[in-house]
Structure formats: C-alpha cells, structure tokens
Amino acid sequence: MIATNYHHFRQQLDPKGVKLVAVSKFQSVEAIHAAYEAGCRDFGENYVQELVDKQAQLPADIAWHLIGHLQTNKVKYVAPFVHLIQSVDSRKLLAEIQKQAAKCQRTIQVLLQVQIAVEDTKTGMSEEEVEGILGELGAFPEVQVVGLMGMASFTDDLAQVQSEFQQLKSLFDRLVAQGVPAYFNQISMGMSGDWQLAVEEGSTLVRIGSAIFGERKNQ
Ligand SMILES: *Cc1c(COP(=O)(O)O)cnc(C)c1O
User: Fold this and answer.
1) What is the spatial distance between Cα 127 and Cα 112, in angstroms, rounded to a whole number?
2) With a 6 A CB cut-off, is 205 part of the ligand 1 pocket?
3) How does residue 119 score in pLDDT terms, banded at 50, 70 and 90?
4) Ligand 1 centroid – CA 217 distance (Å)
C-alpha cells in the first residue's frame, strides 16, 4: 500500500517538478523502509529524538527533513546529518544552526517558516522578521536559506487555505524581486489534505504523511 501511494504521488508531482517529502512521524522503521524500497529518499520528521533514532537505523542515503518546531538546545543532535531544516521560526534558532553547522564543518540548508494560518497555534515568523533575516545572511555563512515554508489553517474552508498559500507565494515573489541568492528557490507548502491546492498556488515541495503511510498511531 505504501509503495502504491508513493508512486501515485510521484506520478502527479514529477511532471510538475514538485518535490515530495514523505512525512514519517510516528511511523515505524518498517513503514519507512517500505517507502524507501519504493524509491523514496526524502523523509520528514517532527521530533528530534525520533529523527535521531530512526536515522541511526535506516540507510545513510536518506535525506532527512526536520519539519517540526526545533528547540535551540536540540540543534546539536541533528546538525551532523540533517538535510533540510524546514521549520526555522526565529532568528535565535538560525543563529544556533549557524553555530552548530560551523562546529560540524558543514553547510546546513534551511527554510524560513512563515506564519500564514489564522490560528495562533501554528508557529512561524512574520514577513518583517523574514525580510530582516534575508537582509543579514552574511551573519550566517554556514547556513543556506533555500526558501520558505508555511502551514495553512486546519479548516474545510478552501478559500481560506488558498488565500494563505497565495500569501506565502506572493511573499516569496516579493523577496525574489528584492534580490536573494539564486539558491533561494523553494516554497514548501501542502500536506495530505491540501497539497493539490498548494501545487496550484506555486508549491515546489509538498510534505505528505497520512496519504502515503495511512493514519498515524499514538498521536
Ligand atoms: C504532520 C505534518 C505534515 C504531514 O501531515 P499529513 O496531513 O499527514 O500529510 C506536514 N507538515 C508538517 C509540518 C507536519 O507536522
């Protein structure tokens, strides 16, 4: 089932050049292995301990994405191997990623998470904070800010979700017009319930969990 679901997504996303990250939080190592065997190499996890445990048990060529809120004191555990930290929600966190990347002598790629949802439970930075950071990238030489990430409101109101995706896309376009490095080219938006809308609105990377793996246990 996992392999079928995975191929189904790739068939729809590949022609559009949209990248697929399989969100494997709360899924077993066996389930991740099934997706890996089907060809998946990009997996997203929300929690540092779970990510570190799984990384140690799974093939080394997996690109691990951290997509959940990251506490500054835990950056050191993922810095040696993480592929993309999608959930940078403060300048303080970015500064810690810079510090740990330098320690590991590697460059770490990140996305800046923007608050687009109306609910205040969703985290992310304001547009002003994002612009501030992009204006001082020289302060983070070991960090590559490759784009933006956003989570839409959890609602059946598709017009609301659509307008939130449009908000993220127009911020992205404005930043590009103002001048950003060429590698700033990713917009991570869209999950199992709203990915089609996100792709229509310009997503370059979708984060799909339950539609590939089935419902999550112990949530
Ligand atoms: C859990 C999660 C997803 C995947 O959610 P599904 O609805 O299962 O596809 C995507 N992005 C983030 C940030 C998540 O926490």
Assistant:
1) 10
2) no
3) confident
4) 14
- Tens of pLDDT, residues 41-84: 999 999 999 999 999 999 999 999 999 999 999 999 999 999 99
Write out the E strands in 120-196. Answer: 143-150, 186-188
Q: Kindly give, in sequence order, each residue whose CB lies less than 8 Å from that of residue 35, ignoring residues fewer than 6 positions away.
A: 2, 3, 6, 22, 24, 43, 212, 213
Q: Are 199 and 13 in contact (CB under 8 A)?
A: yes
Ligand 1 atom nearest the C-alpha of 211 is 9
123 lines ligand 1 (CB under 6 A): no
85 Cα to the center of ligand 1, angstroms:
14
pLDDT digits (tens, 9 = 90+) for 190-215: 999 999 999 999 999 999 999 999 98
Q: Which atom of ligand 1 is nearest to the CA of 208?
A: 9
> Cα(63)–Cα(66) distance, rounded to whole angstroms?
10
Ligand 1 atom, smallest distance to 195 CA = 9
Indicate whether residue 210 lines ligand 1 (CB < 6 A): yes
Q: Which H helix or E strand runs over 87?
A: strand 84-88
